[in-house]
Amino acid sequence: MTAVEERTTTREHTGAGEELAWISWLRVLAIAGVVTIHTAAATAVIEGARDQRRGLVAIILDIGAVFTVPVFVMVSGALLLDPRRFRGAGDFLRRRAWRLVPAILFWHVFYLGFRYWYKEETLTWDQVVNEFLNGRTYTALYFFWIVLGLALITPMLVPWIATASRRAVLVAGAGAAAMPILTMATLELRGTTVTWIVTPWTWWTPYLGFYLLGWALRGVVLRGFALAGVAVAAAGLGAMTIWQWNNPAAPDWLQTISPVTYYGLGVHLYSIAVFLLAQALIRPGALLGGLARPRMAGLGRLLGDATLGVFALHLAVLGVVVDERWIGNDVAAGSAAELLLRIAVVLVATYAIVLLARLVPVVRRVF
Protein backbone atom coordinates (compact mmCIF):
# COMPACT_ATOMS: atom_id res chain seq x y z
CA MET A 1 0.00 0.00 0.00
CA THR A 2 1.45 3.38 -0.97
CA ALA A 3 1.97 6.08 1.63
CA VAL A 4 -0.06 8.60 -0.33
CA GLU A 5 -3.10 7.74 -2.38
CA GLU A 6 -4.29 10.44 -4.79
CA ARG A 7 -7.83 10.42 -6.11
CA THR A 8 -8.91 12.18 -9.25
CA THR A 9 -12.65 11.73 -9.17
CA THR A 10 -15.17 12.55 -6.50
CA ARG A 11 -17.02 9.27 -6.91
CA GLU A 12 -14.25 6.73 -6.86
CA HIS A 13 -15.79 4.97 -3.88
CA THR A 14 -19.43 4.04 -3.50
CA GLY A 15 -20.74 7.58 -3.62
CA ALA A 16 -20.08 11.27 -3.21
CA GLY A 17 -21.49 11.15 0.33
CA GLU A 18 -18.76 8.79 1.50
CA GLU A 19 -16.17 10.64 -0.58
CA LEU A 20 -16.88 13.95 1.14
CA ALA A 21 -17.86 12.64 4.57
CA TRP A 22 -14.48 13.69 5.91
CA ILE A 23 -15.15 17.28 4.86
CA SER A 24 -18.52 17.32 6.62
CA TRP A 25 -17.12 15.93 9.85
CA LEU A 26 -14.08 18.19 9.66
CA ARG A 27 -16.45 21.16 9.49
CA VAL A 28 -18.25 19.84 12.57
CA LEU A 29 -14.94 19.44 14.40
CA ALA A 30 -13.92 22.95 13.39
CA ILE A 31 -17.14 24.59 14.56
CA ALA A 32 -16.92 22.71 17.86
CA GLY A 33 -13.42 24.14 18.14
CA VAL A 34 -14.62 27.68 17.43
CA VAL A 35 -17.27 27.42 20.14
CA THR A 36 -14.65 26.01 22.50
CA ILE A 37 -12.21 28.85 21.80
CA HIS A 38 -14.74 31.58 22.50
CA THR A 39 -16.17 29.84 25.56
CA ALA A 40 -12.81 29.01 27.12
CA ALA A 41 -11.07 32.31 26.33
CA ALA A 42 -12.10 34.19 29.49
CA THR A 43 -10.91 31.34 31.71
CA ALA A 44 -7.66 30.88 29.80
CA VAL A 45 -6.54 34.44 30.61
CA ILE A 46 -7.23 34.51 34.34
CA GLU A 47 -4.25 35.40 36.50
CA GLY A 48 -2.03 32.37 37.07
CA ALA A 49 -4.09 30.28 34.66
CA ARG A 50 -1.36 27.68 34.15
CA ASP A 51 -1.16 27.08 37.91
CA GLN A 52 -4.87 26.29 38.25
CA ARG A 53 -6.70 23.26 36.91
CA ARG A 54 -9.53 25.30 35.38
CA GLY A 55 -7.06 27.69 33.76
CA LEU A 56 -4.86 24.92 32.39
CA VAL A 57 -7.85 23.03 30.99
CA ALA A 58 -9.07 26.26 29.39
CA ILE A 59 -5.68 26.87 27.77
CA ILE A 60 -5.50 23.30 26.47
CA LEU A 61 -8.98 23.54 24.96
CA ASP A 62 -8.64 27.10 23.68
CA ILE A 63 -5.20 26.94 22.10
CA GLY A 64 -5.52 23.29 21.14
CA ALA A 65 -8.39 24.32 18.86
CA VAL A 66 -6.43 27.11 17.15
CA PHE A 67 -6.54 25.16 13.88
CA THR A 68 -10.26 25.80 13.45
CA VAL A 69 -10.42 28.98 11.34
CA PRO A 70 -7.55 27.89 9.04
CA VAL A 71 -9.22 24.50 8.58
CA PHE A 72 -12.52 26.16 7.69
CA VAL A 73 -10.70 28.13 5.00
CA MET A 74 -8.98 24.99 3.73
CA VAL A 75 -12.31 23.20 3.52
CA SER A 76 -13.70 26.12 1.52
CA GLY A 77 -10.80 25.81 -0.89
CA ALA A 78 -11.24 22.05 -1.17
CA LEU A 79 -14.84 22.57 -2.27
CA LEU A 80 -15.00 25.89 -4.10
CA LEU A 81 -11.81 25.59 -6.15
CA ASP A 82 -13.00 22.36 -7.78
CA PRO A 83 -13.01 23.05 -11.57
CA ARG A 84 -15.62 20.31 -12.08
CA ARG A 85 -18.18 22.31 -10.10
CA PHE A 86 -17.36 25.62 -11.77
CA ARG A 87 -19.94 26.85 -14.31
CA GLY A 88 -18.47 30.25 -15.04
CA ALA A 89 -17.80 33.39 -13.03
CA GLY A 90 -21.34 34.72 -13.25
CA ASP A 91 -22.96 31.52 -12.02
CA PHE A 92 -20.41 31.08 -9.23
CA LEU A 93 -20.64 34.65 -7.95
CA ARG A 94 -24.45 34.63 -8.05
CA ARG A 95 -24.61 31.47 -5.96
CA ARG A 96 -22.02 32.67 -3.44
CA ALA A 97 -23.63 36.10 -3.17
CA TRP A 98 -27.02 34.49 -2.57
CA ARG A 99 -25.49 32.41 0.22
CA LEU A 100 -23.23 34.99 1.86
CA VAL A 101 -24.57 38.52 1.37
CA PRO A 102 -27.93 38.02 3.17
CA ALA A 103 -26.10 36.30 6.04
CA ILE A 104 -23.49 39.06 6.31
CA LEU A 105 -26.10 41.81 6.38
CA PHE A 106 -28.41 39.98 8.76
CA TRP A 107 -25.79 39.03 11.33
CA HIS A 108 -24.18 42.45 11.40
CA VAL A 109 -27.56 44.05 12.02
CA PHE A 110 -28.42 41.31 14.52
CA TYR A 111 -25.30 41.92 16.60
CA LEU A 112 -25.73 45.67 16.52
CA GLY A 113 -29.18 45.06 17.98
CA PHE A 114 -27.77 42.53 20.43
CA ARG A 115 -25.22 45.04 21.66
CA TYR A 116 -27.73 47.89 21.86
CA TRP A 117 -30.74 46.17 23.42
CA TYR A 118 -29.26 43.23 25.31
CA LYS A 119 -25.77 44.45 26.19
CA GLU A 120 -27.14 47.99 26.59
CA GLU A 121 -24.15 49.52 24.85
CA THR A 122 -24.23 53.10 23.68
CA LEU A 123 -23.57 53.13 19.95
CA THR A 124 -22.98 56.11 17.69
CA TRP A 125 -23.27 56.15 13.92
CA ASP A 126 -19.57 56.96 13.60
CA GLN A 127 -18.73 53.98 15.80
CA VAL A 128 -21.03 51.65 13.84
CA VAL A 129 -19.54 52.70 10.50
CA ASN A 130 -15.98 52.53 11.83
CA GLU A 131 -16.42 49.02 13.22
CA PHE A 132 -18.18 47.83 10.07
CA LEU A 133 -15.41 49.17 7.81
CA ASN A 134 -12.81 47.49 10.01
CA GLY A 135 -14.67 44.17 10.17
CA ARG A 136 -15.11 44.45 13.94
CA THR A 137 -18.84 44.82 14.52
CA TYR A 138 -18.73 41.83 16.87
CA THR A 139 -16.29 39.11 17.86
CA ALA A 140 -15.32 36.81 14.96
CA LEU A 141 -17.72 38.29 12.38
CA TYR A 142 -14.61 39.02 10.34
CA PHE A 143 -14.79 35.41 9.19
CA PHE A 144 -17.73 36.31 6.93
CA TRP A 145 -15.49 38.81 5.16
CA ILE A 146 -12.69 36.27 4.75
CA VAL A 147 -15.06 33.85 3.03
CA LEU A 148 -16.61 36.58 0.86
CA GLY A 149 -13.23 37.95 -0.20
CA LEU A 150 -11.94 34.51 -1.16
CA ALA A 151 -15.17 33.86 -3.08
CA LEU A 152 -14.66 37.02 -5.13
CA ILE A 153 -11.21 35.95 -6.32
CA THR A 154 -12.21 32.32 -6.93
CA PRO A 155 -13.30 32.90 -10.57
CA MET A 156 -9.75 34.10 -11.28
CA LEU A 157 -8.19 31.06 -9.61
CA VAL A 158 -10.29 28.18 -10.96
CA PRO A 159 -9.36 28.53 -14.67
CA TRP A 160 -5.69 28.35 -13.72
CA ILE A 161 -6.27 25.44 -11.32
CA ALA A 162 -8.12 23.56 -14.07
CA THR A 163 -4.92 23.37 -16.13
CA ALA A 164 -2.31 23.37 -13.37
CA SER A 165 -0.78 20.32 -11.72
CA ARG A 166 -1.31 19.52 -8.06
CA ARG A 167 2.33 20.42 -7.45
CA ALA A 168 1.85 23.86 -9.02
CA VAL A 169 -1.16 24.61 -6.82
CA LEU A 170 0.72 23.30 -3.80
CA VAL A 171 3.67 25.58 -4.53
CA ALA A 172 1.35 28.55 -5.05
CA GLY A 173 -0.43 27.80 -1.77
CA ALA A 174 2.84 27.46 0.09
CA GLY A 175 4.05 30.72 -1.43
CA ALA A 176 0.89 32.56 -0.42
CA ALA A 177 1.11 31.07 3.08
CA ALA A 178 4.74 32.18 3.35
CA MET A 179 3.73 35.85 3.17
CA PRO A 180 1.91 36.03 6.54
CA ILE A 181 4.36 33.54 8.07
CA LEU A 182 7.39 35.65 7.12
CA THR A 183 5.62 38.84 8.11
CA MET A 184 5.09 37.51 11.62
CA ALA A 185 8.52 35.89 11.88
CA THR A 186 10.40 39.07 10.95
CA LEU A 187 8.53 41.61 13.07
CA GLU A 188 11.33 41.96 15.60
CA LEU A 189 14.02 41.97 12.94
CA ARG A 190 12.25 44.74 11.06
CA GLY A 191 11.46 46.65 14.23
CA THR A 192 7.80 47.08 13.38
CA THR A 193 4.35 45.80 14.28
CA VAL A 194 1.75 43.86 12.33
CA THR A 195 0.41 46.07 9.56
CA TRP A 196 -2.34 43.99 7.92
CA ILE A 197 -4.98 46.22 6.37
CA VAL A 198 -7.91 44.90 8.38
CA THR A 199 -10.93 45.99 6.39
CA PRO A 200 -13.82 43.83 5.19
CA TRP A 201 -12.33 43.68 1.71
CA THR A 202 -8.79 42.77 2.80
CA TRP A 203 -9.34 40.28 5.66
CA TRP A 204 -8.96 37.41 3.19
CA THR A 205 -5.40 38.18 2.08
CA PRO A 206 -3.48 36.32 4.85
CA TYR A 207 -5.72 33.27 4.31
CA LEU A 208 -5.13 32.82 0.58
CA GLY A 209 -2.45 30.22 1.28
CA PHE A 210 -4.84 28.09 3.34
CA TYR A 211 -7.46 28.42 0.59
CA LEU A 212 -5.15 27.16 -2.15
CA LEU A 213 -3.69 24.44 0.05
CA GLY A 214 -7.19 23.14 0.75
CA TRP A 215 -7.60 22.27 -2.92
CA ALA A 216 -3.98 21.19 -3.42
CA LEU A 217 -4.23 18.68 -0.55
CA ARG A 218 -7.72 17.39 -1.31
CA GLY A 219 -7.35 13.81 -2.47
CA VAL A 220 -4.01 13.31 -0.72
CA VAL A 221 -4.73 10.29 1.46
CA LEU A 222 -1.90 9.38 3.81
CA ARG A 223 -1.27 5.79 4.81
CA GLY A 224 1.24 3.79 6.79
CA PHE A 225 4.32 5.62 8.02
CA ALA A 226 3.27 8.87 6.35
CA LEU A 227 -0.01 8.86 8.27
CA ALA A 228 1.73 7.97 11.52
CA GLY A 229 4.26 10.73 10.97
CA VAL A 230 1.60 13.37 10.38
CA ALA A 231 -0.35 12.17 13.44
CA VAL A 232 2.77 12.55 15.59
CA ALA A 233 3.46 15.94 14.04
CA ALA A 234 -0.10 17.13 14.72
CA ALA A 235 0.10 16.01 18.35
CA GLY A 236 3.53 17.59 18.75
CA LEU A 237 2.58 20.88 17.12
CA GLY A 238 -0.62 21.06 19.15
CA ALA A 239 1.25 20.39 22.38
CA MET A 240 3.96 22.92 21.51
CA THR A 241 1.40 25.59 20.68
CA ILE A 242 -0.48 24.99 23.94
CA TRP A 243 2.76 25.16 25.95
CA GLN A 244 4.07 28.20 24.09
CA TRP A 245 1.01 30.44 24.29
CA ASN A 246 1.25 33.19 26.90
CA ASN A 247 4.06 31.28 28.61
CA PRO A 248 7.10 33.22 29.92
CA ALA A 249 9.10 29.98 29.81
CA ALA A 250 8.82 29.75 26.02
CA PRO A 251 12.08 30.91 24.38
CA ASP A 252 12.10 34.25 22.60
CA TRP A 253 13.29 32.70 19.34
CA LEU A 254 10.23 30.43 19.23
CA GLN A 255 7.86 33.30 19.98
CA THR A 256 9.57 35.26 17.20
CA ILE A 257 9.65 32.75 14.35
CA SER A 258 6.41 30.96 15.19
CA PRO A 259 4.02 33.10 17.25
CA VAL A 260 0.71 31.57 18.30
CA THR A 261 -1.52 33.25 15.75
CA TYR A 262 -3.41 32.14 12.66
CA TYR A 263 -0.58 33.70 10.65
CA GLY A 264 2.24 31.86 12.45
CA LEU A 265 4.31 28.97 11.10
CA GLY A 266 3.34 26.50 13.82
CA VAL A 267 -0.38 27.11 13.39
CA HIS A 268 -0.08 26.71 9.62
CA LEU A 269 1.61 23.34 10.01
CA TYR A 270 -0.78 22.24 12.77
CA SER A 271 -3.83 23.11 10.66
CA ILE A 272 -2.48 21.31 7.60
CA ALA A 273 -1.78 18.22 9.70
CA VAL A 274 -5.34 18.19 11.09
CA PHE A 275 -6.74 18.56 7.57
CA LEU A 276 -4.68 15.63 6.28
CA LEU A 277 -5.56 13.45 9.27
CA ALA A 278 -9.29 13.98 8.81
CA GLN A 279 -9.01 13.12 5.13
CA ALA A 280 -7.07 9.94 5.88
CA LEU A 281 -9.06 8.68 8.86
CA ILE A 282 -12.67 9.45 7.91
CA ARG A 283 -13.19 7.13 4.97
CA PRO A 284 -14.31 3.53 4.46
CA GLY A 285 -11.86 1.06 5.93
CA ALA A 286 -9.95 3.67 7.91
CA LEU A 287 -9.88 4.15 11.68
CA LEU A 288 -12.92 6.45 11.66
CA GLY A 289 -14.54 4.79 8.68
CA GLY A 290 -17.83 4.44 10.54
CA LEU A 291 -18.36 8.18 10.07
CA ALA A 292 -18.27 7.65 6.29
CA ARG A 293 -21.08 5.08 6.25
CA PRO A 294 -24.26 6.38 4.59
CA ARG A 295 -26.24 7.12 7.75
CA MET A 296 -23.36 8.78 9.59
CA ALA A 297 -22.25 10.58 6.44
CA GLY A 298 -25.77 11.98 6.18
CA LEU A 299 -25.64 13.17 9.78
CA GLY A 300 -22.26 14.75 9.11
CA ARG A 301 -23.69 16.55 6.09
CA LEU A 302 -26.63 17.82 8.15
CA LEU A 303 -24.39 19.13 10.93
CA GLY A 304 -21.72 20.36 8.53
CA ASP A 305 -24.17 22.39 6.46
CA ALA A 306 -25.32 24.15 9.64
CA THR A 307 -21.86 25.36 10.64
CA LEU A 308 -22.24 28.85 9.14
CA GLY A 309 -25.31 29.47 11.29
CA VAL A 310 -23.64 27.99 14.36
CA PHE A 311 -20.60 30.19 13.78
CA ALA A 312 -22.78 33.29 13.66
CA LEU A 313 -25.26 32.50 16.45
CA HIS A 314 -23.08 30.88 19.12
CA LEU A 315 -21.62 34.25 20.13
CA ALA A 316 -25.04 35.47 21.20
CA VAL A 317 -25.87 32.20 22.96
CA LEU A 318 -22.57 32.36 24.81
CA GLY A 319 -23.18 35.98 25.73
CA VAL A 320 -26.55 35.17 27.26
CA VAL A 321 -25.27 32.08 29.12
CA VAL A 322 -22.42 34.09 30.66
CA ASP A 323 -24.26 37.35 31.35
CA GLU A 324 -27.27 35.65 32.91
CA ARG A 325 -24.96 33.49 35.04
CA TRP A 326 -26.80 30.35 34.00
CA ILE A 327 -23.62 28.30 34.44
CA GLY A 328 -21.29 29.81 37.00
CA ASN A 329 -21.15 33.14 38.76
CA ASP A 330 -18.45 34.86 36.73
CA VAL A 331 -17.29 35.40 33.16
CA ALA A 332 -14.46 32.95 33.83
CA ALA A 333 -15.56 29.43 34.71
CA GLY A 334 -15.24 28.51 38.36
CA SER A 335 -13.97 24.99 37.64
CA ALA A 336 -12.93 22.74 34.80
CA ALA A 337 -16.25 20.90 35.01
CA GLU A 338 -18.14 24.18 34.80
CA LEU A 339 -16.14 25.17 31.73
CA LEU A 340 -16.85 21.87 29.98
CA LEU A 341 -20.54 22.20 30.80
CA ARG A 342 -20.62 25.71 29.33
CA ILE A 343 -19.00 24.54 26.13
CA ALA A 344 -21.44 21.63 25.79
CA VAL A 345 -24.50 23.79 26.51
CA VAL A 346 -23.49 26.56 24.10
CA LEU A 347 -22.67 24.09 21.32
CA VAL A 348 -25.79 21.94 21.71
CA ALA A 349 -28.17 24.87 22.25
CA THR A 350 -26.80 26.75 19.25
CA TYR A 351 -26.98 23.70 17.02
CA ALA A 352 -30.57 23.03 18.12
CA ILE A 353 -31.65 26.58 17.27
CA VAL A 354 -29.84 26.60 13.94
CA LEU A 355 -31.14 23.20 12.82
CA LEU A 356 -34.69 24.31 13.60
CA ALA A 357 -34.18 27.64 11.84
CA ARG A 358 -32.90 25.86 8.74
CA LEU A 359 -36.26 24.11 8.42
CA VAL A 360 -37.87 27.46 7.58
CA PRO A 361 -37.36 28.21 3.85
CA VAL A 362 -36.62 31.95 4.05
CA VAL A 363 -34.89 31.94 7.43
CA ARG A 364 -32.47 29.21 6.39
CA ARG A 365 -30.83 31.70 4.00
CA VAL A 366 -29.02 33.36 6.91
CA PHE A 367 -28.34 30.15 8.85
Give helix and strand order, one letter per element, not per position: EHHHHHHHHHHEHHHHHH
The outline comes out as globular
| Helical content band | 55-70%
Describe the strand arrangement of the main beta sheet, using strand numbers.
1-2
Number of strands: 2
End-to-end distance: 42 Å
Determine the structural class based on helices, strands and strand pairing.
mainly alpha
Number of domains: 1
The whole-number mean of residue pLDDT values reads 92
User: Helical stretch count?
Assistant: 16
Radius of gyration: 21 Å
How is the main sheet built?
A: 2 strands, antiparallel
**Strand content range:** under 5%
Low-confidence region ranges: 1-17
Characterization of this structure:
With 367 residues, the protein is an all-alpha fold. The protein has one domain (4-340). Helix content is 66%, strand content 2%. It has a two-stranded antiparallel ribbon. Helix 2 (21-44) packs antiparallel against helix 3, helix 2 runs antiparallel to helix 4 (68-80) and helix 2 crosses helix 16 (336-357). Its main location: membrane. GO terms for molecular function: O-acetyltransferase activity. It is a multi-pass membrane protein. This is Surface polysaccharide O-acyltransferase, integral membrane enzyme.
Fill in the keyword field for this structure.
mainly alpha, 2% strand, globular, Acyl_transf_3_dom
Q: Topology, pairings included?
A:
Layout (H helix, E strand, L loop, with lengths): L3 E3 L9 H4 L1 H24 L8 H12 L3 H13 L8 H30 L6 H9 L8 H22 L2 H20 L1 H4 L17 H10 L2 E3 L1 H21 L7 H6 L7 H17 L12 H12 L1 H17 L12 H22 L10
